[in-house]
Amino acid sequence: MANLxxxxxxxxxxxxxxxxxxxxxxxxxxxxxxxxxDDGLSRHHFTLDRCGEDWGIEDLxxxxxxxxNGERLAGRRVLVPGDHITASxxxxxxxxxxxxxxxxxxxxxxxxxxxxSTDLASLLAREAAQATPLWNAPATALLRAxxxxxxxxxxxxxxxxxxxxxxxxxxxxxxxxLTTEKCGLVVQASRGEGFRISTTxxxxxxxxxxxxxxLDTQQDELxxxxxxxxxxxxxxxxxxxxxxxxxxxxLIYVDAPxxxxxxxxxxxxxxxxxxxxxAIRIERERLGEVELAERRMTAELQQAADIQRRFLPAQPPVxxxxxxxxxxxxxxxxxxxxxxxxxxxxxxxxxxxxxxxGKGMPAALMMMNLQARVQALADGxxxxxxxxxxxxxxxxxxCPGNRFITLFLGVVDPAGGELRFANAGxxxxxxxxxxxxxxxxxxxxPVLGLFAGIGYVEFRCGLHPGDLLLLYSDGVTEAVNAAGExxxxxxxxxxxxxxxxxxxxxxxxxxxxxVEQWAAGQPASxxxxxxxxxxxx
Length: 537
What we know:
Strand order of the largest sheet: 2-1-11-10-7-8
Number of strands: 29
Shape: elongated
Structural class: alpha+beta
Radius of gyration: 31 Å
């Protein structure tokens, strides 16, 4: 049976069994595998589909691409065990390794008989109606065990403590504790192995919030014929939900073999209360771990954001004949957009803008690496084409398979009235002439970091007094309002044309304000960067 081992951006790994005929993957919540927090994914990124005994993968024209074993996917491809699939920050390994066999849920041939059942709500109601406490001395002792559960422990240790207390309270021979995770039920603690649990029992516990007891499997005609019951010599078993209010976080299953202690309805009541106390403790511990992790992450991201801001120009350089300005805003604390002004020989200045695919810390680290490489190469007085070619060669050797970079580098020569540039897959800049003409600089090559052997071509155009060069990242034009409409290139062009006589700094501020007003509080889905260079003489 085929499986996927899925590793997300936060480092968590889970394994799922591939079932059905087709699975979709992407950022939208209607996918079978949805990662709405990963902005580097397209809404519908790729699909997995079954053909006979094989599984295939097909990219759905995603923006940032799907990669199998480091190669960008083009068309459909049949997967083989061991294939590594990467899409943005998510990594998947395809295989046919067997799943965990500590617990196997098996479909019954008919309705499983149940000797007794209860639920937390009716149990609490019964207790409230009693003139004297419902719980006897053993149950009281078990409830007091909640004091032990109040001790802060790692979750892995806490799960085992809960199972041990549950088994000791009802004198069970074997037991297992499972929690409901995104990938399904996960064994968190067990004493014994080879548990075979009816799917009917599982579903009644998890979905019906019901505690179940089978007093004697030999008196139940269906269970007496069930091979797994015979092999395991199970005489009596109970299954109860780990329930807090209306939420079920998993279940506890315990059993006893023939000749051992036979469970009673009182044991079922006891185990139900124990599971309720345990579920509350598990939830508190999980919330505590999440809050602690979030505080640490926020502090680290804030420090990273402060460091990253120092890598971007605080002020543009003073270059005779030019008016320069730039602006950057990360959609998260840190981002993957980069811009720079690099003064050169004979009064020239290199104007750079780049966008690393993806968001957050991975993109920020690549951005800082890119900035260091660009500045190092710029000191070598290379032409734009030579610089970008060398930059691509060095990045391709270290760039992860699911990442790439778009970049535009232009050398502005105000004295000679010329712009020389090379474009590696970045948004084509706009050149605004004083007479109202707008020229789109469409020439360029592919993105950086994917193909080491590519050479980039240098292009040239005149830069006359009054001409204004606008560079921008797609976070500007793809900003959406409440209706889902993008800001767009035409709106950006009209905005700059309407402020034709303004300074570079004023135009950058106008772009920032216009995009913010357009979004009207909608969360930004991408970093926003704009750079303006105007020849003033």
